[in-house]
Amino acid sequence: MTEDLTPAEAYAAARARNAEQATALAPFREMYDFGLDPFQIEACQALEAGKGVLVAAPTGSGKTIVGEFAVHLALQQGRKCFYTTPIKALSNQKYADLVKRYGHEKVGLLTGDNSVNGDAPIVVMTTEVLRNMLYAGSQALSGLGYVVMDEVHYLSDRFRGAVWEEVIIHLPESVTLVSLSATVSNAEEFGDWLDTVRGDTEVIVSESRPVPLWQHVLAGRRMYDLFEEETDHGGRGASRREVNPDLLRLARTENSRTYNPRDRRRGKMVREADRERERRQRSRIWTPGRPEVIERLDAEGLLPAITFIFSRAGCESAVQQCLYAGLRLNDDEGRARVREIVEERTAAIPTEDLHVLGYYEWLEALERGIAAHHAGMLPTFKEVVEELFVRGLVKAVFATETLALGINMPARSVVLEKLVKWNGEQHADITPGEYTQLTGRAGRRGIDVEGHAVVLWQRGMDPGHLAGLAGTRTYPLRSSFKPSYNMAVNLVDQFGRHRSRELLETSFAQFQADRSVVGISRQVQRNEEGLEGYREGMTCHLGDFEEYARLRRELKDRETELARQGAAQRRAQAAASLERLKPGDVIHVPTGKFAGLALVLDPGVPAGRTNGHRGFEHHDGPRPLVLTAERQVKRLASIDFPVPVEPLERMRIPRSFNPRSPQSRRDLASALRSKAGHINPERHRKGRSAAADDREIARLRTEIRAHPCHGCDEREDHARWAERYHRLQRDTKQLERRIEGRTNTIARTFDRIVALLTELDYLRGDDVTDNGKRLARLYGELDLLASECLREGVWEGLNPAELAACVSALVYEARQSDDAVAPKLPTGRAKAALGEMVRIWGRLDALEEEFKLHQTEGVGQREPDLGFAWAAYQWASDKGLDEVLREAEMPAGDFVRWCKQVIDVLGQIAAAAPKENSTVAKNARKAVDSLLRGVVAYSSVG
Q1: 618-671, pLDDT tens digit by residue?
Q2: What's the CA gap between 614 and 618, in Å, rounded?
Q3: CA separation, residue 135 to residues 167, 205, 246, 778, 923 (Å)
């Protein structure tokens, strides 16, 4: 209360209010009908003070307010602001928001396939567009005052993350950088790097969610709280949260009740009891079906909800299941409003395409308030789903995890069906960072009092593991920065080789590598102190014990090596003896579970066959199938034959013999015992040890006996210290190699890239050749391959459709590799050109190997993928959507996305291709026009 203030306090408060009114923040705050949070105010004040800022805060906390304040400052100061986002969908969304506030004339949009008012003072763009501007020295950069990098944690992305670092490093010093990130556990480290490369940067971290988050597990008919007390509601409060004991009890009970199929009990009554137990168990607890989950959430007032299913097909299937279950979440008024919005937004789609796109089934689900959301959907359809969800007309969305990456679609509840997902190589548990990102969608600021994260019960679930995911906020930002060919020529062109190398050493990747070296260096210092102590312990008054220990070590190593050679030789002899076996040979299996007399039924030697895995033919040697004297038919392995085996006898195997028939096995085993049961196998005699005749061993033993330290009474005590010294010295050398490997790693990779480009005449010292200038205009994973194709005239004479087919191989990557089926290709010139592209790639791949550039390290050119060539050719040849999608066996959303990427690269090729005596530039532009039609043209999001 002001009346309780002393005159001095009242005067100070009035001065503070007046000072705040004089700032740019005061009128900005009045634009919002809610108060700003402390972290937003702190970041805005830092910006107004001329500092850069890094804001790390949870999803939905309103960190974009800080980015909007940068826009406000730029307009107030008469400067420009570029607002960058990682994906075009986010750019479109932000563009719409800013247009609503500032009007069309002040806001532009640049996303590669969309260019609207690019000279406006505020321009929303994808990060790649800004990177390309910086390398091209675009005039649009003049007057630039602020750059907002939304979702800056994308720099961890192994495919695109390098672009963020390129922008941060190369932005002019006069530009103030606003970095907005999800909650990361190493924000301070990232902030330290920004401070190094961008100057004074304030790090503002907020870990409290604007809407409290409650965690649940839905099992059967009951919704369990994950934690017994959630006083910090998903934040980082000081209170300790205990896992709900009821949930732990349920997990213990369920796991103990699991029926063991290996239970050997027999008898009808016992089996009936087992089945009854299983029935009772299922009646108590089960994983609820998808319609059941939505009905349950609806009954408890927890809709709208996003259910994350880590599969596109699973999302579509979930929608169908809800439709078949008769689920309706909208009333008649809502249905009519949905139909009105959908028809308005899809009016541009030709009627003949609607059926192909599954429009009517999609519309029926939307009218009921249900939808899928994944990358395979047509972009326009995804936009409609997003709009209807935000308006509350779609209440249940089944989505893949891509929805969690930035799209503004908050919900009251988030459901996770499973805690395992396919990562492209294997099924793996989701990480705490992924869990936080997914559940961060729950709870709408200003609408919901609390958000809810619901995990469906699965057999074998561990509540402790789930609590670890929910309670851990470890989401470290890791640089994925790697130099590329395009980056190298652009840097050398602008700065020369030496300065370019220095610039790359300022990357966040090198910053992190150098920091990790500090800890290793400390360990090396500690090890060196330990080595000094061990050296004292092994000191001998009779002579140089270090030399004596070396001789002993060399003797031991030589004996081990000879023993290893002897074992390998015995294995080779045993394998050779197995390869000589024939069906009907009677042998004696020397060791193992089936040791004893056996009859060879099949030698198990491959004859052009594979052993279940392509390219691996019995890599562990022959595996004979035998019948033992105890009537067992078994496939043996080389481990059962440590010594060579020789046939003892021969027997005829009856044609009627059936290894599956107990009677057949019994009869043949009886004949085996009668035929050879009396034969005693010869014991394998060990040959003379190789060590006995080895000159090196004899020499070392002589030197050891002659050494002065050999006669020391404390010799073995000294030897123990010497062994510790040797182990620690070996470990220290490994640490030193790690330090050497991490120091200047980025610069060394750059040097190898420059050497390769020099070999191919793209660079000559600090000069970029004409070939290099062409490469500088080609951005993409296969930049060098595209440049070589232009240089060698591979695409000359191709018509636009054929050129589109060839360029598709530069961008397309199949979601799952299918080497068994050769992709369908256009015939004639296009097929020949595609073959030539693969040949050039092979030459580049060999060259990269020579210069030690490896794709496993994120550097180099992957093999071109021809899987989209036929679809691109068909579409550019004016074929209908139905025919193209049917033959491509590809969802409409994927088709549109790949076409947009082909269009983007065709635009680059049109700019980079020779202007004289070449048809490529002209046909590239025609190919763009041919592809940019129908669903591709009216999809505003790529």
Answers
A1: 446 788 899 998 888 888 888 888 888 889 889 899 888 888 888 988 999 999
A2: 11
A3: 10, 32, 60, 11, 26
Main-chain dihedrals φ then ψ at residue 774, nearest 5 degrees:
-70, -45
Q: Which amino acid is at 61?
A: S
- CA dihedral of 765, 767, 768, 770, whole degrees rounded to 10: -120
655: helix, coil or strand? coil
Beta bridge partners of 399: 308, 373
Residues 810-826 as b/e (b if ≥16 CB within 10 A, e otherwise) read bbbeeeeeeeeeebebb
Task: Name the percent of the chain in helix, strand, coil, to the closest 5.
Answer: 50, 10, 35
Q: What is the pLDDT of residues 402-428, one digit of tens each?
A: 665 556 677 889 999 888 776 555 667
Report the relative pairing of strands 213-219 and 107-110 from DSSP bridges: unpaired
- Mean pLDDT on 35-44: 87
Contact 872, 808 (CB under 8 A): yes
Report how far residue 161's alpha carbon sits from residue 165's, in angstroms, rounded to the nearest whole number: 7
- Distances in Å between the Cα of 827 and the Cα atoms of 668, 821, 832, 869 are 60, 17, 8, 11
Give the whole-angstrom CA distance, residue 554 versus residue 573: 28
Contact by Cβ (8 Å): 856, 838: no
What is the secondary structure of 821-855 as a DSSP string?
SPPP---THHHHHHHHHHHHHHHHHHHHHHTT--G
- Given a contact cutoff of 8 angstroms between Cβ atoms, the answer to whether 318 and 290 are in contact is yes
Kind of pairing between the strands at 201-205 and 122-126? unpaired
Q: How many CB atoms lie within 10 A of CB 101?
A: 13
The confidence score (pLDDT) of residue 821 equals: 60
With H, G, I as helix, E, B as strand and everything else as coil, classify residue 217.
Answer: strand
Q: What are the b/e assignments for 175-205, b being 16+ CB within 10 Å?
A: bbbbbbbbbbbbbebbbbbbbebbeebbbbb
Q: Model pTM greater than 0.85?
A: no
Residue range 128-185, pLDDT digits in tens: 889 888 888 888 888 999 999 988 887 777 777 888 888 988 898 889 999 988 777 7
Contact indicator for 590, 626 with CB cutoff of 8 Å? no
- Beta 649-650 vs 585-589: how paired, if at all? antiparallel
What does 368-412 look like in DSSP terms, one character per residue? TTEEEE-TTS-HHHHHHHHHHHHTTS--EEEE-GGGGSS----BS
- Bridge-based pairing state of the strands 107-110 and 122-126: parallel
**Distance linking the first and last C-alpha atoms of the chain:** 55
* Burial class (CB within 10 angstroms; exposed 0-12, middle 13-18, buried 19+) of 702: exposed
Residues in CB range of 766: below 8 A, 6 or more apart: 492, 496, 497
DSSP 139: G
Residue type present at position 822: A
- The one-letter amino acid at 887: E
H-run or E-run covering 78: none
Residue 928's SS3 state is helix
> Three-state SS string across 847-906, please?
HHHHCCCCHHHCCCCCCCCCCCHHHHHHHHCCCCHHHHHHHHCCCHHHHHHHHHHHHHHH
Three-state SS string over 505-524 comes to CCCHHHHHHHHHHHHHHHHH
Q: CB–CB of 289/401 below 8 Å? A: no
Q: Which of 60, 57, 94, 59 is nearest to 446 (CA)?
A: 60
Cα distances (Å, whole numbers) of residue 672 to 432, 631, 806: 61, 10, 66
Task: Let me know: does 751 contact 501? Beta carbons within 8 Å.
Answer: yes
Amino acid identity for residue 761 in this structure: D
CB 489 within 8 A of CB 757: yes
Report the alpha-carbon distance of residue 792 to residue 938 in Å, rounded. Answer: 36
